[in-house]
C-alpha cells in the first residue's frame, strides 16, 4: 500500500511570468444563478482539489495552471510588489498542497476558498514587510565593505567567515540574534553570492522561505549593527 504521508512539495511551478494587468481590483463571481460554464468550471476545480488531497501531483499542476494567473493578480493587488506577490503565491499553493483535504465544497466555491488562502497570506506578508521596513537601519557603505571585503578561500564555510567578521566588528550579539537558518542564508548571500533559488534548493525548502530568511536576516542584522555603532 502506498504511503499516505504528505511529502514536502519542492517542484512547485514558477509564478506566471506576465505582470497582472495594472493590479486592478478583480470582480469576484457572484453566487446567484451560475451559468452552465461556471458550474462546469467549479466542478472541475472541486475535483482537482479532491485529487490534490490524495497527493496527486498531476492534479496539483492542473489546478495551478487553471488558477495561478488569477490568484497572482489577487496577491499583487494586496502586496503591490511582484516579488512579494510571487512569494505569496508560492506559500499559498504549498498550503493548498498540505491542506487540500480540509476543503468543503458545501461551504465555499473552490475559487473563493483559494482566494481566501491567498489573501490571508498576502496580508501577513504585507504586514511583515511593513514592520521590517519600519525597523530597518541600513548598513553604511563602510560597514558593507567591511563585511564583504574578504571572501576568503572558497573552501572555508561561509558561516565561519560571517562569524569571524562579526567578531572583528564586535557584533557577535547581533549575529546571534538571528536564527540559525537566517545566519546561514545571510552568509551564503554575502560570501558565496548565492541567489534565493540556490539557497532554497540547497536547504530543500520553498523559495519563499529562503527569501524570508535572507530578507529578515539582513534586516535584523542591519538594525542591530545600527544600534551598536
Question: What does it look like?
Answer:
The chain is mainly α and 229 residues long. The chain has two domains: 97 residues, RNA polymerase sigma factor, region 2, helix turn helix motif (Rna Polymerase Sigma Factor, Chain: A); 92 residues, Winged helix-like DNA-binding domain superfamily/Winged helix DNA-binding domain (Arc Repressor Mutant, subunit A, Orthogonal Bundle). Helices cover 66% and strands 0% of the residues. The protein contains ten helices and no strands. The protein is elongated and about 70 Å long.
Helix percentage range? 55-70%
Q: Biggest sheet: strands, sense, closure?
A: none
Q: Shape from CA axes? A: elongated
Q: How far from one another are the termini?
A: 61 Å
The count of β-strands is 0
For the record, the CATH class of the largest domain is Mainly Alpha
Name the poorly predicted regions.
Answer: 18-32, 135-139, 143-155
SSE class: mainly alpha
What would you say about this model in short?
The protein is mainly α.
Task: Name its key features.
single chain; 229 residues; mainly alpha; Arc Repressor Mutant, subunit A; 2 domains; elongated
Topology summary:
Layout: H1 36-52, H2 57-79, H3 82-99, H4 110-135, H5 141-148, H6 158-168, H7 172-176, H8 180-192, H9 196-203, H10 207-228
Amino acid at each position: 500500500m502506498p504511503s499516505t504521508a504528505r511529502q514536502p512539495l519542492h517542484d512547485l511551478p514558477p509564478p506566471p511570468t506576465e505582470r497582472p494587468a495594472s493590479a486592478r481590483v478583480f470582480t469576484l463571481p457572484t453566487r446567484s444563478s451560475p451559468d452552465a460554464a461556471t458550474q462546469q468550471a467549479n466542478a472541475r476545480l472541486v475535483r482537482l482539489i479532491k485529487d490534490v488531497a490524495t497527493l496527486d501531483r498531476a492534479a496539483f499542476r492542473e489546478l495551478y495552471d487553471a488558477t495561478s494567473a488569477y490568484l497572482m493578480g489577487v496577491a499583487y493587488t494586496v502586496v503591490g510588489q511582484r516579488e512579494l506577490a510571487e512569494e505569496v503565491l508560492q506559500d499559498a499553493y504549498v498550503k493548498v498542497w498540505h491542506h487540500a483535504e480540509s476543503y468543503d465544497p458545501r461551504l465555499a466555491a473552490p475559487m473563493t476558498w483559494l482566494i481566501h488562502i491567498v489573501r490571508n497570506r498576502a496580508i501577513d506578508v504585507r504586514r511583515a514587510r511593513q514592520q521590517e521596513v519600519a525597523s530597518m537601519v541600513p548598513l553604511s557603505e563602510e560597514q558593507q565593505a567591511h563585511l564583504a571585503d574578504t571572501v576568503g578561500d572558497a573552501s572555508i564555510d561561509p558561516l565561519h567567515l560571517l562569524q569571524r567578521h562579526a567578531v572583528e566588528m564586535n557584533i557577535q550579539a547581533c549575529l546571534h540574534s538571528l536564527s540559525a537558518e537566517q545566519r546561514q542564508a545571510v552568509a551564503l548571500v554575502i560570501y558565496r553570492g548565492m541567489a534565493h533559488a540556490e539557497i532554497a534548493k540547497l536547504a530543500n525548502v520553498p523559495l519563499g522561505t529562503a527569501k524570508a530568511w535572507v530578507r529578515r536576516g539582513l534586516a535584523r542584522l542591519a538594525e542591530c549593527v545600527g544600534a551598536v555603532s
